[in-house]
Amino acid sequence: MNSQRLFALVLAASLFAIANATYLNVLGPSTAVLQNGQSIYLGKVGPGESFYVEASASTSNATGFVVNIGWDKLAAVNLPPGWISQPSLLYENPMKIKVTVPATAQNGTYNLTLEAINVGNYSKLGNLTATAYVNVTPDVFNLSVAPASIQSGIDQPTNLYITINNTGISDDPFSISVYGLPAWSISEQVVALHSTQSTYVYPVYVNESGNYNFNLTVSSATSPLIKRSYPVSLVARASLLNDYSAIGQGVILSPVVFYPSYELMLFLSYVYNTLFH
Predict the structure, then answer these.
(1) How deeply is 114 buried, as exposed, middle or buried, from its count of CB atoms within 10 A (0-12, 13-18, 19+)?
(2) 151 vs 22, 176, 213, 222, 232, CA distance in Å?
(3) What's the pLDDT tens digit per position in 225-253?
(4) Strands (E), the chain
(5) What pLDDT, in 10s, does the model give residues 107-153?
(6) Residues near 26 by beta carbon (within 8 Å), at least 6 away in sequence
(7) What is the C-alpha separation between 236 and 144, in angstroms, rounded?
(8) CB 3.0–4.6 Å: which of 102, 183, 204, 234 could bond 82 by disulfide?
(9) Listed residue (165, 78, 65, 66) closest to 114, CA to CA
(10) Beta strands 158-166 and 141-146: pairing type?
(11) Do 3-136 and 141-236 fold alike per CATH?
(12) Cis bond upstream, residue 182 (ω within 30)
């Protein structure tokens, strides 16, 4: 047998073995079809955050026969110190495990073992293990705010549009709040799904005129280390329509000699409130 024919036979045998090998089909947060002993990089996660790993219960046996519920359970084992996990439910498909990183975890790359289990080896699959790598860092999202400079009337909420690009693998909630703006301390909690970009509406409000510079801050609900701030400027001024509205609420703005003007402005106030409130 010549060397070229021998090489072709070895290659064909290898490809046949790969095609018929038992595998684990990981569906998220990264995707890969893993064989026993292989590895996968899942992505970034912040200290204190949790993430989920999903995988299909389907696989094939050594002869290439597809077993729809081959894996009965998925678990994370050999975790770094302080990490905790919850295995998938028995016989669920897709299988889903939860992994929580301790809030004290230092920045760096960590690994854990994914274990796909065929309970009792009923399907003659044994167990499959694969190594999963995770990068721990507080840099797990990007933030933008529009507009960065706004003008507003008194007692008139003005909307800011907050775009959060979650580049991590956690779906933990974020809190939106402002610092440095008087008489306004409202926080809104939102969920920015992993590997997605979403825009949220957040109103700001002042009750007196002035020039205000403040920071809009987005922070993780699970870790104070995960946060970003964005500077915003606000110019608040009284407007004619605001004055008309104030008259309609009984606020006296001028001496008695201007009562005829009051009646006109009160009518305009009524029209304004009817059309715009």
Answers:
(1) buried
(2) 63, 21, 12, 34, 11
(3) 999 999 999 999 876 554 444 344 333 33
(4) 23-28, 32-35, 39-45, 50-55, 59-60, 66-67, 73-77, 84-86, 95-100, 108-117, 127-136, 141-146, 149-152, 158-166, 173-179, 188-191, 196-204, 210-220, 227-236
(5) 999 999 999 999 988 778 989 999 999 999 999 999 999 999 999 88
(6) 32, 33, 34, 40, 53, 54, 55, 114, 130
(7) 22
(8) 102
(9) 78
(10) antiparallel
(11) yes
(12) no
Question: What does CATH list as the number for 3-136?
Answer: 2.60.40
Residue 101 in tokens:
């990183």
Which residue has 């167990």 as its token pair?
127
Sign of CA dihedral 148, 153, 155, 156: negative
Amino acid at 189: Q
**The CATH number, out of the four listed (3.40.50.1360, 1.10.287.110, 1.10.3720.10, 2.60.40.10), of the domain defined by the range 141-236:** 2.60.40.10
Structure tokens at 125: 């699959």
Dmax (CA) for the chain in angstroms is: 117
> Angle between the 259-276 and 240-248 helix axes, to the nearest 10 degrees?
100
CA dist 270 and 272 (Å) reads: 5
